[in-house]
């Protein structure tokens, strides 16, 4: 019998048996798929022994505290031996402890509902909105607004609320009750304005859309604090306070999707905390446990929670939802240790410092290469938009970002890119290195991109 941990055999097994996410497998008939076998800090090693600097935290903004943390593995192992699971109809110690510590970081919130993925966490919020509509007006106030270019997950309901056409292609028909709001990218203002000479129309458009749909039918809006896979798009500072004001005016629940930005990515515990407002619901996953265990959270105010409390004889007046692995104790155990690491190693401060340094280095590349039309981001969450011409802002073809990312990977640095999300704007490079990044790490990332652009 072959050694199951043999990396070469693992490549063969992967090639013959595994089906990868968002990957065309035809090239694997001639070439080997990438298979990673080990990670330490910021670096991972593949089955052939080649080492890479990971500038995307596990490919999708997840491994926030870096690879190979023994204390994370120990926390999970110790908890699983003690109690691995019981359905979340009952409580468990790490879930109760993490909920308390999490709420301490989120003034204005009071309740944590556990599940196991960002898509699922968002579905819970949608179900809360839909149930409240039935509680209060026979289900009429059920519609949910989402924003063009935002991504909220892979289920049919999550895709129904996603503003990325290629991500959604071939998965329709989608669910009714969702409406799309214009995006907030100043570089490509959907209203043809320039920041500083506008009225933040991208935010005020929410009121127009609510009136169009009917204020008595709109129950919620979901927004990423910073659009992630849609191009790393931070809103203008005035954006969210205006959104909050409109939501209050029309009794619309404001749901912020922190699946990417949550737990330190922007230098704050949460992305929304960079702006002057408080949401009604916040969802999170990915960096909550830095990929050491599966966990997601749907966090609400006490006002929302209280509406689900009633006489037990009422068979429908409670949150009638369940998530099987919301009862797994590994997630909150890992999340507790993850939060300890972020606090004790002052990683929020490091993100702020290193994020500013990284953005400065990326602007240096913009000065050097005309192909870079825009650099934008917050903390260790940065993006670079590539164009054929800075005046017309015509985007480069997706093959260009593919070549740049491929060149970087050949030279030992893994960067991100907008991957077949839109018909036209797959022209963004994305950088989200772990919160432990140093100047040397940032320099290595920027040098790899510099070399790739020069080769292009």
UniProtKB/TrEMBL annotation:
Q: Which Pfam families match?
A: Aminotran_3
Keyword annotations = Aminotransferase, Pyridoxal phosphate, Pyruvate, Transferase
Per its UniProt record, what Gene3D superfamilies does this chain match? Aspartate Aminotransferase, domain 1, Type I PLP-dependent aspartate aminotransferase-like (Major domain)
The prosthetic group or cofactor this protein requires is:
pyridoxal 5'-phosphate
The UniProt subunit note reads as follows: Homotetramer.
From the UniProt record, list the reaction(s) this protein catalyses: taurine + pyruvate = sulfoacetaldehyde + L-alanine
Q: PANTHER family attached here?
A: AMINOTRANSFERASE (PTHR43094), AMINOTRANSFERASE CLASS-III (PTHR43094:SF1)
Pathway(s) per entry: Organosulfur degradation; alkanesulfonate degradation
- Name of the protein in question: Taurine--pyruvate aminotransferase
Q: Which family does it belong to?
A: Belongs to the class-III pyridoxal-phosphate-dependent aminotransferase family.
InterPro entries in alphabetical order: Aminotrans_3 (IPR005814), Aminotrans_3_PPA_site (IPR049704), PyrdxlP-dep_Trfase (IPR015424), PyrdxlP-dep_Trfase_major (IPR015421), PyrdxlP-dep_Trfase_small (IPR015422)
Organism whose genome encodes this protein: Halodesulfovibrio spirochaetisodalis
Alphabetized GO MF terms = pyridoxal phosphate binding; taurine-pyruvate aminotransferase activity
Top-rank lineage group of the source organism: Bacteria
E.C. designation(s):
2.6.1.77
């Amino acid at each position: 019998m072959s050694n199951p941990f043999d990396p070469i055999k693992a490549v063969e097994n992967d090639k013959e048996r595994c089906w990868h996410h968002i990957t065309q497998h035809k090239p694997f008939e001639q070439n080997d798929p990438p298979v990673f076998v080990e990670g330490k800090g910021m670096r991972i090693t593949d089955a052939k022994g080649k080492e890479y600097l990971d500038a995307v935290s596990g490919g999708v903004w997840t491994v926030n505290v870096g690879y190979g943390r023994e204390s994370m593995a120990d926390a999970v192992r110790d908890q699983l031996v003690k109690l691995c699971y019981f359905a979340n109809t009952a409580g468990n110690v790490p879930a109760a402890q993490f909920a308390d510590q999490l709420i301490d970081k989120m003034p204005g919130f009071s309740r944590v509902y556990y599940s196991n993925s960002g898509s699922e966490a968002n579905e819970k919020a949608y179900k809360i909105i839909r149930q409240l509509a039935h509680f209060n007006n026979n289900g009429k106030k059920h519609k949910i607004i989402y924003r063009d270019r935002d991504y909220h997950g892979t289920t049919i309901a999550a895709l129904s609320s996603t503003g990325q056409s290629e991500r959604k292609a071939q998965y329709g028909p989608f669910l009714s009750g969702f409406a799309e709001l214009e995006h907030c990218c100043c570089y490509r203002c959907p209203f043809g304005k320039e920041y500083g000479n506008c009225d933040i129309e991208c935010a005020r458009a929410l009121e127009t859309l609510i009136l169009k749909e009917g204020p008595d039918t709109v129950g919620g809006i979901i927004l990423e604090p910073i659009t992630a896979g849609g191009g790393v798009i931070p809103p203008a500072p005035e954006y969210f306070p205006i959104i909050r004001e409109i939501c209050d005016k029309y009794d619309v629940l404001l749901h912020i999707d922190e699946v990417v930005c949550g737990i330190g990515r922007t230098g704050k515990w949460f992305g929304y905390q960079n702006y002057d407002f408080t949401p009604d619901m916040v969802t999170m996953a990915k960096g909550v446990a830095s990929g050491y265990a599966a966990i997601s959270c749907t966090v609400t105010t006490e006002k929302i929670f209280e509406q689900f409390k009633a006489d037990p004889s009422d068979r429908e007046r409670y949150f009638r939802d369940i998530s099987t692995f919301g009862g797994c104790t590994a997630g909150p155990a890992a999340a507790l240790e993850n939060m300890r690491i972020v606090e004790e190693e002052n990683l929020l401060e490091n993100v702020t410092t290193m994020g500013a340094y990284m953005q400065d280095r990326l602007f240096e590349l913009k000065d050097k290469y005309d192909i870079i039309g825009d650099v934008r981001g917050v903390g260790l969450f940065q993006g670079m938009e590539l164009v054929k011409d800075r005046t017309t802002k015509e985007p480069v073809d997706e093959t260009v970002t593919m070549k740049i990312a491929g060149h970087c990977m050949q030279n030992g640095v893994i960067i991100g890119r907008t991957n077949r999300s839109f018909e036209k704007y797959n022209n963004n490079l994305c950088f989200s290195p772990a919160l432990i990044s140093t100047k040397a790490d940032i320099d290595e990332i920027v040098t790899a991109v510099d070399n790739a652009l020069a080769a292009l």
